[in-house]
Amino acid sequence: MGTSVTRRLFLGMAVAGGATLRLTQEELAMTSDPPTPIQSGYAPINGLQMYYEIHGSGEVPLLLLHGSLGSLEMFRPLLPALTQNRQVIAVDQQAHGRTADIDRPLRYEQLADDAAAFLRYLDLDRADVFGFSMGAAAAWQLAIRHPELVRKLVGAISYSNDGIYPEVLAGLETTFSPEAFAGSPIEADYRKIAPNPDDFPTLVLKVQDLTRTATALPVETIRAIAAPTMIIIGDADIITPEHAVELFRLRGGGVPGDFVPMPPAQLAVFPGTSHMMLIARTEWLGSMIPAFLDAPMPEEA
C-alpha cells in the first residue's frame, strides 16, 4: 500500500472520530492570544469529575462541546472572537481531556445529559450551544432531551448513517483502532493532559463503539427542536452536502426569504474544508457564530 493511500486512510480514521486538528505554530500565530479563564475546576456530574473553564462575560452563556478524541483545547483559537460580548463555557466530556473516564460506555444521549447536569450545576437556566463533531451530536441531543436549557443551537450532525460517506464508515470498522493511533499527535495531545494517560486505547475503542451504535434520529424529532439552529459543514466534510441540506430543510430552512419570513435555521458550507479543517476556520466561525447568536429570537423579531 502506498504512503499516500496510508495517509488518506489515517486521516479518514481521525475524521470518523471527529478528532481534534492540531494547529501548526504558524496557524496559531495568526490567532489572537486566548483569554485566561475567569474560573476553572471540576464539577461532580453524573459520576464524573468534569473539567470546565469559564471565559468572558455576557447575558446568555455559550457552551462549547468538543469532538471525540479531543478536548476543549480545540476551541482555544476561537475564544478571542467568541468572548468579545459573551460568556463562554467549555468542558472536557467523559474520558476526554482532563475529565477521567468512568465505567460506562460513551453515548450521545448520556453526553447530553451530562451537559444538562453541568448547566444546572452552574445554576444556568438557559445557554446557547456550539458543538463540533461528537460534541455536535451531543448538542443536538441536549436540545432534544432538555429543550428548556438550549436557546440557540450551532453544529452539524448526520441524523442517520445514510448521510455519512460510505468510505468513512468503512474506515471506522476496518482501521479505527488504538494501534492505528499509536504514536500519533492525537495520542500525544491526550497524554499531555489526561489524568490517566494510559487510558487512550480504551477511549479509541469507546469512540468506535459510540459511532457504530448511534441510532438514527426520527425526522419528527428534528422538526420539533425548538431552538433556532445553525448548521455548519465543510464542502469536503464526512457528511454529504445533500444530507446537510436535508437537515437544513427539516429545521425550517430552504424558503425564499424575500417573499416569506426568514426561517429559524441557517446553513453555512465552508469552501475547501474537510471535517478536521472546519474547527480551524477561526475567522469564519468567529464571525458567523456570534452574528447568529446575537440575532433576535424568532418571536422577538
Any chance you could write out the topology, listing elements then pairs?
Elements lengths: L2 H14 L8 H5 L9 E7 L2 E8 L6 E4 L13 H4 L5 E4 L16 H14 L5 E5 L2 H12 L4 E5 L11 H10 L2 H4 L3 H9 L6 H14 L5 H6 L4 E8 L4 H10 L14 E10 H4 L3 H13 L7
Parallel strand pairs: 3-4, 3-5, 5-6, 6-7, 7-8
Antiparallel strand pairs: 1-2, 2-4
Helix pairs in contact: 1-6, 4-5
CATH homologous superfamily annotation: Alpha/Beta hydrolase fold, catalytic domain
Q: What does the main sheet amount to?
A: 8 strands, mixed
The general outline is globular
Radius of gyration (Å): 18 Å
Give the structural class: alpha/beta
Q: Based on DSSP secondary structure assignment, what is the total number of beta strands?
A: 8
Helical percentage? 25-40%
Major sheet: order of its strands? 1-2-4-3-5-6-7-8
- Unreliable stretches: 1-31
**Strand residue content:** 15-25%
How many structural domains are formed by the residues? 1
Distance between the termini: 57 Å
CATH class (first level) name? Alpha Beta
CATH fold node name: Rossmann fold
Overall mean confidence score, pLDDT: 89
Number of helices: 13
CATH architecture term: 3-Layer(aba) Sandwich
Run of helices and strands: HHEEEHEHEHEHHHHHEHEHH
